[in-house]
Amino acid sequence: MVAATPTVWERSTPDPALVSEALAGSEQRVFWLDEAPPTPSAEQLTSGATADLVVVGGGYLGLWTAVLAKRRDPGRSVVVLEAETVGWAASGRNGGFCEASITHGEENGRNRWPSEYEQLHRLGRENLDALARDVDELGLDCHFERTGSLAVAVEPHQVPWLSEGLSEGLSEGGHHDVLDAAATRAEIDSPIFLAGRWDRDDVALLQPARLARELARAARELGVRIFEHSAVTAVERSGARSGPQVVRTARAAVTAQQVVLATGVFPSLLRRDRLMTVPVYDYVLMTEPLTAEQKRAVGWEHRQGLTDLANQFHYIRLSADDRVLFGGYDAIHHAGGRVSSRYEDRPASYERLASHFFTMFPQLEDVRFSHRWAGAIDTCTRFAAYYGTARGGDLAYARGFTGLGVGATRFAAEVLLDLLAGTETERTQLEVVRRKPLPFPPEPATAVGVALTKASLDRADHRQGQRNLFLKALDAAGLGFDS
Ligand SMILES: Cc1cc2nc3c(=O)[nH]c(=O)nc-3n(C[C@H](O)[C@H](O)[C@H](O)COP(=O)(O)OP(=O)(O)OC[C@H]3O[C@@H](n4cnc5c(N)ncnc54)[C@H](O)[C@@H]3O)c2cc1C
């Protein structure tokens, strides 16, 4: 049995006065939503309408579905109904890591879908390439930068993990550089970086709220009608079994033959789908723009995304104006499993993040935070989105992106359109599309299970990554909890 040792975040803790001073001027607001140019506000649905396709939800999944539906068939009439405003939820407040992976990372993909992993890897890469082309062709002004990302070891036992798979030819086709401590620190300087792996091809960075608003603009230009402040309360058949569906809001309804549910972490409009995901809150800090001198002190010439390798990991990146986004580590499931803005101001999580920021970048001790925010992640037990249809194939849905949906929602939109078209494609044949994950148990069992899992993951981070029996049992059952 491996003895418990403190993690790097516990071995070197910055002065608590520095942490509170650095947070003192921060506002509880989403930087990305503040920075993105506003879109013309969309009208509310106030009178009845008809369409060929109604998309419920104006996050990435709903917006990509609308855009790609028009691309497939420009004559199809498409309506998007959004409960609040386009991109206000996860899509407007995430880290902006746009990854090729459609399996929530390579390890999760290989473990769960070993026989189709290579295909999933290829499809994910093709999806990222297609997304990059769409950014150009649709003129999506979203600060898209294909910088790759640097995964860093911050504990000695993580160093060998960086080369795992590379020697056996796994991860092939990509451009990966394993860097020693000096080479890692030459990229991004931190005294706690022991080694790194720069995956150059499979990750792009973007401004998330801009992507959502620009997708809405592109959708409108293609003829999609978008209604905001129009929460859908029910989707019903209008009469005959194969007849059109009525998508109701409080004030009016849209009648359409086909419906896509793209409601993310929010309660599913299909009752049977409700136990499939739980909301997990992730917390984020954004600094003020670094001065030229502060930027020199950290390097970061290649502007990669940055992550560390623990179970409880951080994601870190630069914005276009050289602020540092520092998020992750705490992934909080609140008992009861509800989505609520009251969970967003969590001082303990922000203080922990600020403390870890100064442990990682002690040379930036004069930097202050301008924004702090949180968002809810639609976690499912296999961490990668699942798909379903109902109403004889006229209603399709996807959720459960579990913290890796910026790129994967575009792939999912293609899957949903394939499913509605009723055509067999390479995508619809995939096990990842045909099979669903196990649901979570009802509350309070989920809250107890999540607390046990989190404690076990924390324990593993203190014991050289060694997983205890509880985690091994979950692994064997294909069940998990992540953000
Ligand atoms: C803090 C945070 C950091 C993240 N970082 C990353 C990252 O770096 N990289 C990455 O790949 N992923 C990341 N993610 C995950 C990523 O943001 C999501 O997977 C993605 O945005 C999901 O898009 P979506 O369209 O499914 O959901 P959402 O963006 O949540 O959109 C769903 C929409 O549906 C609407 N809606 C819900 N119910 C109804 C209804 N009844 N009627 C009408 N409208 C309704 C909601 O108002 C909402 O606008 C992060 C998430 C969070 C919260």
Strand content: 15-25%
Major beta-sheet overview: 9 strands, mixed
Under CATH at level 1, the class of the largest domain stands as Alpha Beta
Q: How far apart lie the N and C ends?
A: 28 Å
Please identify, by name, the CATH architecture of the largest domain.
Answer: 3-Layer(bba) Sandwich
The count of DSSP E runs of length 2 or more, i.e. the number of strands, is 19
Provide the residue-averaged pLDDT.
Answer: 93
Any overview of this molecule?
It is a single chain. Helices cover 31% and strands 22% of the residues. The chain has 15 helices and 19 strands. 48% of the residues are buried. A hairpin with a 5-residue loop joins strand 14 (305-308) and strand 15. It has 2 domains: 1-35 and 149-201 and 278-379, D-Amino Acid Oxidase, subunit A, domain 2 (D-Amino Acid Oxidase, Chain A, domain 2); 41-146 and 206-274 and 382-440, 3-Layer(bba) Sandwich (FAD/NAD(P)-binding domain). The strands form 3 sheets. A 9-stranded mixed beta sheet has the order 1-17-13-16-15-14-5-7-6. The longest helix has 21 residues, at 117-137. It has 483 residues and is an alpha/beta fold. The structure holds flavin-adenine dinucleotide (FAD). Residues 56-62, 81-84, 88-91, 93-97, 99, 231-232, 262-266, 269, 282, 284, 315, 375-377, 401, 403-407, 409 line the site of flavin-adenine dinucleotide (FAD).
